Amino acid sequence: MPRTVWLLIGARAINRLGAFSMTFLTVLVATEFGVPATTAGLVAAAFGVATIPSRLLGGYLADRVGRRTTILLGLLGCAVAQAGIAVAPSLAVLTVFAVLLGLAFELYEPPSQAMIADEVPVALRTRAYSLLNAAMAAAGLGAGLIAAAVGRWDLRWLFVVDAVTCLACAIVVRLVLPADRPARRGPARSAVWRDRALLAMLGIGTVFATVYMTIVMVLPLTLPVPADAGILSTVAALTLIAGQPFVRRQSLTLGFVLLAANLVGYGFADSLPELVAFTVLGGVGELFLMGRLMAIVADLAPDDARGRYLAFYGICWGFATVIAPLAGTWLLESAGARGLWLTLAGVTLALAAGTARARVTRVAQPSALR
Which SUPFAM superfamilies would you find in this protein's record (predicted)? Predict the structure, then answer.
């Protein structure tokens, strides 16, 4: 892999060490301000709405202003907003900073992903994105332990730690990544919303991301000790890292089936060891999904529109961040924890069935969705 890719992955891993705070946003709101879970879900949804324009702006700036500059803007904005959440004296103030965090939260994702596509040939992109995901998982080991420790003490300090790691990542990016290339001039030629293959990927990505973000945001509310979500996050990360050398062909269908098994297990688990065992299944499923999905989108993108293509696909995470806390907390209150997890498992199996039959015609590998 090119040196720039390794440096970028290292910088993002530093940031990932603190990127666990959003898992506990709903718990913080509910416990600190004494509001019901649905109100906490609304705050998280406001954050999610703000991530949608953030992602699109990040893609535009990545193509027009430059990759490194856009990454720095996002990291610094996140640091300020996380600090604001940590010291917010009221629910209204916290909500304002949650929205500001959403507006900065996705800025650095499209330029990071586009920088990898710039540096790596098509045949190696799945591997490169998988390495990025594995590095995030490795940092997630430390993040999960920090969350389990700090979260038992004071949930607000989770956001302080997150702000510090954002600043540390920004310093590394500024010092080690190459300067931006000259900005492109003239009108953009590629209208991303006209690409049917990209629209298909957006649909698949939105459903998957909604399931994933529901796990992230609602899992702590279903546990006897909410901070145990940090332990489960650590288990998932360890599984992802350990499995990297053994996966030669990444299959979306198999990944979705394994994730569904994880969710069914959550519905029937009665102890932390059982939750850990089923989390391992989900970690293996993620191993088959993340790198392949991103590589498909990168392969679809014209050279002059990588940032915008990756950003357009990435808004699936913004949609999910809006839908997940609302649907997840509603399902939890109306159907209970078991009903929540079994519903998500059914949705995930539907994704498995769909990707087993679907094709994206413009990708480099004919079986990319299998």
Answer: MFS general substrate transporter
Q: What tokens were used for 41?
A: 């879900």
First to last CA, the chain: 26
| Torsion-angle region of 186 (φ positive above 0: left; ψ -120 to 50: alpha; else: beta) | left
Q: Report the C-alpha gap between 232 and 140 in whole angstroms.
A: 11
Can you read off the two tokens belonging to residue 353?
A: 């069935």
Half-sphere exposure of 257 (CA within 13 A, CB side): 10
Mean pLDDT on 223-229: 82
Q: Which residues, 6+ apart, have CB-to-CB distance to 288 below 8 Å? A: 247, 250, 251, 252, 254, 255, 258
Write the DSSP symbol of residue 122: G
Q: Is residue 320 part of a domain?
A: yes
Helical H segments across 177-227, by residue range: 196-222
Query: How do residues 341-365 score in pLDDT, each as one tens digit?
Result: 999 999 999 999 888 876 543 344 4
Q: Quote the CA–CA distance of 25 and 4 in Å, as a whole number.
A: 34
> Looking at this protein, which amino acid is placed at residue 223?
L
Q: Tell me whether residue 367 is in a domain.
A: no
Angle at 21 between CA 204 and CA 232, to 5 degrees: 70
CB-based contacts of 202: which residues, under 8 Å, 6+ apart? 312, 313, 315, 316
**Distance from chain centroid for Cα 362:** 25
**Count of positions (residues) in the chain:** 370
Residue ranges making up the domain that contains 167: 3-179+195-357
d(CA 302, CA 108): 20
Residue 269 included in any domain: yes
Domain-located, residue 368: no
Q: Where do we find the tokens 């991301």?
A: 209
Q: What letter does residue 305 receive in the DSSP assignment?
A: G
Domain CATH code at residue 160: 1.20.1250.20
Judge residue 292's burial from the number of C-beta atoms within 10 Å of its C-beta, 0-12 exposed, 13-18 middle, 19 or more buried.
Answer: buried
pTM: 0.77
Q: Is 336 left (phi over 0), alpha (psi -120 to 50) or beta?
A: left
pLDDT tens digits for range 270-319: 889 999 999 999 998 988 888 889 988 998 888 778 889 999 998 888 78
Q: What is the DSSP letter of 86?
A: H
